[in-house]
Write the structure tokens for this entry.
Amino acid sequence: MQRVNILITAYQGIQARWRASRQHLWLHVTGLVLGAGTSGALAQGLPTTAPPSRGSTDGDYIGLMQDYAFDIGVFIGLALATLAMIVVVKNTLGAYSEVQDGKGTWGQLGINFGAGVLLLVFIVFLLTEAATIL
């Protein structure tokens, strides 16, 4: 008897999920059908998208996507350079803290700062070269 109750409960749960998924699908289909006729009216108030930094390519969608990918690549490179700058500043502040605590010397602080500046200059150089290659 207990097995029969378990099977009935499982069947009812499956049936309720099926009903809910059917209603969910019906809402999506209804929204697509109703939205298809009004998409032009709804989009009239929206601004146009900004063209990529290399210029707009009319009708050439592959070139347009390549230009947007270039912009995304440059943005990711700049984000990594910003992260490198934060790491250099954190390292230099850590070295300064060691100097204040008496665990480090001013020479170590200068070496940390100089190495960090050289690292940032090298990263900016690599970003500039990568932007011309892409």
Notes: The chain has three helices and no strands. The mean pLDDT is 80. Residues 57 and 80 are 29 Å apart (CA to CA).
